[in-house]
Q: What sequence folds into this?
């Protein structure tokens, strides 16, 4: 998606060789006009797949997921990161390791909002190691729902998540795939 | 907002006299078509106020804030709950006590995304004790930004937050104000 790559080149900040800060438009301050274009692009890629639910994980996926859901005319469910062991009511639970925060979270979704009739599109802002995405796929499987695929805004293609998930047969559509980056020359994308 | 009150009456679940679960459409599963109507109603109430930025707090405010921002044609900034003491870079910090989780959070916003040129509309899903909203107002004040007001989806008018903040001169616009509730008779709204 050229508009997104252009924005990353202009406003993304590279730290070292693996940190890409896009908090001015994607995941702290959020440019909802850009999100609308992102949502349309996800629809173009997953149109006709019968998606009836979008699943994301708090917090930075929620805005993109909600604006994307307007294009799909379906509801969003966001998985919650939980630090308390027992949640009232019935939930699907999985564990997700955050490499950024060096922590393992329990991630939960109420059984009321994900089930065998659902065809799910997972939306998230970043794909790197793939831990969050694998956790969300686990929740979809526990629910007996069908997975249409994953729509990712920025994939760090030099990290192993995308490759591993595609090898498992998951359809992963990333709008910008970063091949490499450094502080001097900036971001290089996969063609 | 009649559409919202109707939805709360139909799909809200009352527990005891003070818990209102609206997780089927507002803050776990999210009905983005309803969010569009909510966003239009916030615009109707704050139109002409010169709002150029919407501020919310993770996680459940983000979806509503993003869809509302489409009506205002402005970006969203979401305040982050932080458990780590020192964040890289310059941030405004405040403390918010969560009565639901019995915890005090540091809540932060990067100084890059809130400043003296901003006219801020705060958006959140619930107002009860007002702790989150007071924290967000503190961040706006630290930034030297101007506060247009707060747009709240559901106010528990029997709890003290709304009254205290209005007494301080904050413009609080709540789309559904709950006067009282119980498990048998359901939710009663302030006229």
A:
């Amino acid at each position: 998606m050229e508009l997104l790559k252009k924005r990353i080149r202009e406003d993304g900040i590279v730290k070292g060789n693996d940190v890409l800060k896009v908090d001015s438009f994607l995941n702290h301050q959020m440019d909802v006009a850009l999100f609308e274009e992102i949502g349309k692009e996800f629809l173009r890629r997953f149109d006709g797949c019968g998606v009836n639910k979008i699943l994301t994980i708090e917090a930075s996926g929620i805005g993109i997921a909600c604006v994307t859901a307007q294009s799909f005319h379906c509801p969003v469910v966001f998985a919650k990161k939980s630090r308390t062991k027992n949640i009232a009511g019935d939930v699907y639970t999985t564990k997700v390791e955050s490499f950024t925060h060096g922590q393992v979270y329990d991630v939960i979704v109420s059984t009321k909002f994900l089930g065998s009739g659902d065809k799910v599109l997972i939306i998230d802002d970043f794909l790197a190691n793939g831990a969050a995405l694998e956790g969300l796929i686990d929740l979809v499987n526990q629910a007996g729902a069908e997975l249409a695929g994953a729509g990712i805004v920025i994939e760090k293609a030099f990290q192993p998540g995308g490759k591993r998930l595609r090898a498992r047969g998951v359809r992963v559509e990333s709008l910008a795939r970063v091949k490499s980056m450094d502080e001097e020359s900036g971001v290089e994308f996969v063609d």
Q: What stands out?
A: The mean pLDDT of chain B is 95.
